[in-house]
Amino acid sequence: MPRFLAAQPQTELITLPWEMPLEDWPEKHLVALPRGISRHVVRFVKVGGGVYAAKEVLEHLAIHEYRLLRDLIRLDVPSVEPLGVVTARVDPDGEPLDPVLITKHLQFSLPYRSLFSRGVRQDTVNRLVDAMVVLLARLHLTGFLWGDVSLSNTLFRRDAGSFAAYLVDAETGELHDQLTDGQREHDLMIARTNLFGEFCDLEAGGLLDEALDPLTLVETIENRYRELWSELTGVEEFDGSEMHRIESRVRRLNALGFDIAELDITTDFAGSTIRIQPKVVDAGHHSRRLIRLTGLDTEENQARRLLNDLDTFRARTDQQGADESIVAHQWLTQVFEPVVNAVPNELRSKREPAEIFHEVLEHRWFLSEQAGTEIDIKEAAERYMNTVLKQLPDEAVAMSLDSMGQLANPYDPSQGFLDDTVEKPYDPWEDADEIAEEEEVSTPAAAYLDIDSLRRRASANTD
Amino acid sequence: MATVSFSDATRVYPGADHPSVDRLNLDIADGEFMVLVGPSGCGKSTSLRMLAGLEEVNQGSIHIGDRDVTDLPPKDRDIAMVFQNYALYPHMTVGDNMGFALKMANVPKAERQQRVMEAAKLLGLEDFLNRKPKALSGGQRQRVAMGRAIVRQPQVFLMDEPLSNLDAKLRVSTRTQIAALQTRLGVTTVYVTHDQVEAMTMGDRVAVMKDGVLMQVDSPLHLYDTPKNLFVAGFIGSPAMNLIEGTVVDGGIQVGDYTVPVPREWLAKAAGETKLTLGIRPENFSIAESGAGIGLDVAVVEELGADAFLYGTLAGLPENERLNAQQVVARISSRRPPSRGATVRLTADAEHFHVFSTKTGDRLS
Lengths: 463, 365
Known about the structure:
Chain A has about 475 residues and is α+β, with helices and mostly antiparallel strands. Chain A has 13 helices and 16 strands. The longest helix of chain A has 24 residues, at about 180-205. Chain A is globular, with a radius of gyration of 27 Å. Chain B is an alpha+beta fold and about 375 residues long. Chain B folds into two domains: about 5-235, Rossmann fold (3-Layer(aba) Sandwich); about 240-355, CATH 2.40.50.140. The radius of gyration of chain B is 25 Å and the shape is elongated. The chains are: A alpha+beta (about 475), B alpha+beta (about 375). At the A-B interface, helix 4, helix 5, helix 12 and helix 13 of A face helix 2, helix 4, helix 5, helix 6 and helix 7 of B. Chain B: Pfam families: ABC_tran, OB_MalK.
């Protein structure tokens, strides 16, 4: 009987064929979604109305990751939400099966492989890289050592023309109070290696634009990370006459989407030299403000965009002196909601509401320029939905893309394309393994320390 | 290749009242396979991470060869964490999967190919080099991951519980392969595990740690035969050494109604202690034909081939106390094993006695 460890039990999951290895699950339960490569068996399963990711993994790892992902959610780090761990699985012959960790599929998320396969533009790559860097810096700020930084372990969501990155795999992760420089360097070193490998893999599969160079890409990531980190945490020293630099540091961080919760300011005895260093920095400067004013929960850049529109609305309606939250409520009911509610049902799985609103704003700007006069938001929304949104692919649950070549197994990109032969070359080691295995079966005391064989080995070495 | 030495290396986590690693002094020879072992929280992983540069060294220093690496960033230490990344890239050949990091480090193509070829020969993967990795078995994937570290030709390999995410079958074969490879490569290796059987079968020397302190570092056999203190005695060996407390009397240590004849000079070292701990490994016991020996009430008999394991409690305990009493294990020849419920007398040769001060835990014999 399988056991479910979960915070909010999803009864529909109980009916899945837990007595089967994940690899053998019938297709009726599976969804072929593009995703990264993995060293474990991972499948997307569809139950009831939801899509979930299931990963078969050893028990201590499954539970470790489940708890860690819950901690990350609690700490408000963008990561996938864990639903539970299924343990005590046995097949019909009574043989034990590895536990399965279940996470919620992140709606409107895009794995890097689907983003790169569309003849990706340099500009898009830069935005992806930026999103990855912000995620890594946020994780490091919270004391999370990832240990396996890679594109495969990251999901991207659209964020007002940019991207927001989410962590999907925390198996190797560790949560500390604070990371040492060595730990961050270590993560960065792994990031370099893994990302380089992934870019080379895309290149080898013909999925990377020829103009893009793996080495340049990883170097960009490293440099951007260092720039961001020093902006977030670096010490700044200046003369007492330049007090405005405190304010400008705060503004720069806000512009990057971060709030300073604690700033350490020290002066020398005479007060002539000021030294500042942000001690606690929180991501989500704009999204927090937006949620406070309107209750809308969006990505950071979407929030920035919506807040800009809110400010415009305020100026246009001549309410600069009015209470901000009252104006926000007006904007929500008179501007945002009419646009979002006008999206026909069948188009709602194309983009998230906030992203649609952002694109409508973009479209209005484009239309207004064409017309030489300002176009009303309602008209812009209508025209956007009819001409643009209709043509876009569904992204609520992104489907497999044909341009990626035919996968050997549509449910498992880790197995590569359907191409070369499967007949196996000779492997001397596996032969030896088989012999060794037979020997082992004959010694039931294998779990004990075999001190006699150690003694034999030691005396053989000294002879 | 290089030596590694920890000199008074100490790591104290901010806010902690005890160091996680307390003045560690450990010299690892060039080409040696050193295993750090101990229960969780003993400081073994922290020590490895100090060497890797992930943890700060608050006091003391660490050298790799002649270089003081105490304050160097991880990438400048010329070390490789094995099995750190083992995602295999499906569109790249096995050879490229092994060698891509060299490309990143701008190693010329000819040299890259040569290093990959050498590693592949060593790993029995020559015939796979131009293949895609999708058809590889679990064990072959492990070897590609090893190959990634090997082609980098680092001074030191570091492995932190590398077998912990493998299933039982793969664990045993990978264990053997790592040990064999290390011998052939001769690269200094520091390996961390919580599993003493793994430590004993793999290491040239094993460093046993507890609560941040190095308890003993020695060859597996020395650790087994002359544990320096009670902790090492109880930790190394499976099933564990029997550690039986007795009273010092004239002529030995009294356990139950029997006086174990412990040599006088060992007892003399116990200056004034009335209670000592006697350690005897299960396989050193034999059943006393004479009827004089440590009494054991046998609760379970487990026959394994030519041997039988007897599990029980010291003789003479009332039934209701046996359940919570210390268990004594003896491994004897299974020709005529006693039946469960019987009481037997056990003896051992004095050369197999391990005598410890109960108070300090130090070895006296």
